[in-house]
Amino acid sequence: MASKKIRRRDIIQQVVQERGGVSVGALAEMLGVSTQTVRRDIDLLCDGSNLRRAHGRIELAEDRLNTPFDQRAGTNLAGKRAIAEVAAAQIPDGATLFVSIGSTALSVARALRYRKELTVITNNLSAAMALSEEVSNRIILPGGELRLPDRDFIGEEVVEFFGRFRAEFAVFGTAGVGEDGLLLEFHQSEVRASERMRSNAQRAILVIDHSKFGRLAPAAGASISDVDQVVCDRPPTAVFETVVEGLGDKIVFAEKTV
To answer: In what residue span(s) does the HTH deoR-type domain sit (predicted)?
Structure first.
């Protein structure tokens, strides 16, 4: 099988695992191929027991279906807590910060629960709710439609929203890191939102666990080397040794420091 087909089908599987289900049209737009091509991919992917077709969509099979965000939030808890503690330790009372979507960014928000007088600019509703427990904090959210079950806002309106603010810190995650060090997302709007946060913050902190290295997603963004700091739980596989070495002291492995 051609490598493009393998990569495309891997991405389809990952998107379905993330969201629980996705339409044929959305996949075609995301991957830049025809709906007929996506349907052929789905025919092959649904031969197993993990995925199923449903009214122009591909979904997780019933016995594997669960809330996608909660699945992610419930994995590698110790690693995410370690990442969150290292990242949160850099953010003082009274700081202004961007917080992105994603379960690791949410972990950082939870680790900031004892900070006071923060100004938090976020499209992550779960992070906003976690930080709202401290009434001295100021929390700013974009308008628009809330994406469920992830409980976040995405789209071009969010890119414009982040463009209206400046912050001392940006805490953000990514869907994956390519072997060339590029940060990968499932949507171009997510790439642009991350870029806007990074460029409008004095210090950009990428928070990711080691599983994101080598994880596929179709939309490519900035290089990981453009980030001010990377906080990861532990080193990735040897395939990424050159990428990690290139980061030097920009990358911190949290499980070694907490």
So the answer is: 5-60
